[in-house]
Design goal:
By secondary structure, this protein is α/β, with parallel strands linked by helices. It contains 15 helices and 18 strands. The structure holds xanthosine-5'-monophosphate.
Amino acid sequence: MPLEDNLQKIIIIDFGSQFTQLIARKIRELGIYCEIINHNKINKKYKIEKNVKGLVLSGGPLNVYQSNKVKLNKNILLSKIPVLGICFGHQIISKEMGGKVKQSKAREFGLATVEKVNNSILTKNFFVNNKNNVWMSHADEVTKLPKNFKVIAKTNNSKLCIIESTKDKLYGIQFHPEVTHTNKGKIILKNFVFDICKIKKNWSPKYQKTNLIKEVKKKVGNSRVICALSGGVDSSVVAKLLANAIGKNLTCIFVNTGLLRKDEEKQVVNTFKKKFKINLIYVDAENQFLSKLKNVSDPEKKRKIIGSLFIKIFEKYAKKIKNVKFLAQGTLYPDLIESKSVTGSQTSKIKSHHNVGGLPKKMNLKLLEPLKYLFKDEVRKLGLELNLNKDIISRHPFPGPGLAIRIPGVITREKIKILKEADYYFIKALKDEKLYNRIWQAYAALLPVKTVGVMGDNRTYEYLCLLRAITSEDGMTADFFEFKKPFMQFVSNQIVNNIRGINRVVYDITSKPPSTIELE
Ligand code: XMP
């Protein structure tokens, strides 16, 4: 249980929808705490805790007649605690309460027009001239109303698109109010939590700061904590939060692998050691990393070498600090949510991610994960509340193996130096043109190819620089960002004119899938 034990909340029951986390984020943006629970947990024994003020049933890939896969303790629908079913959730409420669900004659995917049939608190301020554009994704539909229910809205292909039973406090909608394509979808969630569940705002960065500090103090007492600080958003927020809570009992260890972005190590030392006066051990391990990586070109080998050397170095310095009981990590809520697929499909390993996950077992330390109930956007707001600089908070994600996976093939000092400069010019232009915050992640890479160019009447034979900039919700899928020609021309000129070693710039126009965000 995070934070206060009696914090009022909404529970979202996940039936495997790709949008479940989005529902949670939208509700939290309204200032209400909510948690996601896998539908398997809502079995016969499940009891609703006193502080649960409402339930949301998500969509999902199942159909309501796959009785072996769908488990739902019907008591939760009879408990008089408000329930909102979305898509599959709408169908399962209907079926369980005596209605009928059938395969639709015409499936609905994408935009649809919903028309008002009756008034409802759920749709207060939602319709515009009794209509609205909503986003659908379903192959089944509710064809018979359950007892005590009435229709609130319909579409051409879904006559029972929004239904409700105010007596039982049950509400169902066939479309997805949580996605941005549904016009004013958030209003439905707002009406549900405030007017139907009658829950009061209880979730803000200020609340999180106060309570997380309290919680850390209680858990840690007078023990010592170590934290691997990378300079990224998550570890920076963890470090600052812990420093506020336990002061000098926190020691951060920052390992400079030599594979970081330009001047990154200076910024980390300036912010955490000089400005915030946090105990920080700075380890310059560039030579060790580069000598281990010499002549290695296989992506997985690079990742493994970097990951294990990082752990070895971190362990060596951590051992020098006496009486350490905890290792702090920036685990976030999405890492925690049960990711087991409801359809049982397995995802294959694409890349071995570098993190410090192996450390606590090896070092006999307890894990301290103060951010484990927060989404990334909440971590950013908490960071601002903790007075962290905007530059740190809005930083694009950066992979553990750093520039090593942005230099396909063999890594040399010369290549790293060239790449740091290219990345610097690209990112600076993005910031100057106010594009940086519209992009989820952007970087430059140095390809192991030399091509011929001409500069000042002379032949050049230099490296190829690849630029990548993507938009994404969570890094799982991504699309390339569409720049205007003058911007691309400017960046290309900046890079080629200012950096010796690059004479050609290309832009990566693949999405993920089929590509990945990083090159290796
Ligand atoms: P890919 O390349 O798998 O990247 O599409 C998805 C996101 O993960 C980041 N990434 C990593 N982050 N350790 C990390 O902490 C890693 O080893 C690692 N590899 C990739 C990548 O930058 C992108 O944001």
